[in-house]
Amino acid sequence: MTELNEPLNIDAPLFFLGHTSEGNVVRFHKNFPNLKMNKVIEVINSGDNVDLRKLIEIMNEIKLISSIWMGPAYVFPENFNKKSNAVKITIKNKDLL
């Protein structure tokens, strides 16, 4: 990764871990040390639940963590036409978050 897919051209995070119905999605910043990648992959693949404490320890060995973002993230295609009670979040209704 080099930068976020956002209009501000913000530098990408050191590490990204996501989970989909098809499994884990793991991405590393372009400057992430190769030797540490194997440790991270080991932690992720070591059981049913990822040990966040171990991941944080590895990240802090590389660079002191200044922030962590966790939570659900959903993306729906523009042509998503199914009936739902879901509310599309925009700048105008961001207070709903």
Sheet/helix structural class: alpha+beta
Physical arrangement of strands within the biggest beta sheet: 1-2
The largest pleated sheet is described as:
2 strands, antiparallel
| Helicity, as a percent range | 10-25%
Total beta strands: 2
Task: Outline the low-pLDDT stretches.
Answer: none
User: What separation lies between the terminal Cα atoms?
Assistant: 27 Å
Query: How large, in whole angstroms, is the Cα Rg?
Result: 17 Å
- Based on CA inertia axes, which overall geometry fits? globular
By oligomeric state, this entry counts as single chain
What is the N-to-C succession of helices and strands?
EEHH
The fraction of residues in strands falls at 5-15%
Write structural notes for this entry:
The structure is a single chain. The protein has about 100 residues and is α+β, with helices and mostly antiparallel strands. The chain has one domain. Helices cover about 25% and strands about 10% of the residues. The chain is built from 2 helices and 2 strands, in the order ββαα. It has helices at about 35-45, 50-60; strands at about 15-20, 25-30. Strands 1-2 form a two-stranded antiparallel ribbon. Helix 1 (about 35-45) packs antiparallel against helix 2 (about 50-60). It is globular, with a radius of gyration of 17 Å. The protein starts with 14 loop residues before the first strand and ends in a 35-residue tail after the last helix. The mean pLDDT is about 85.
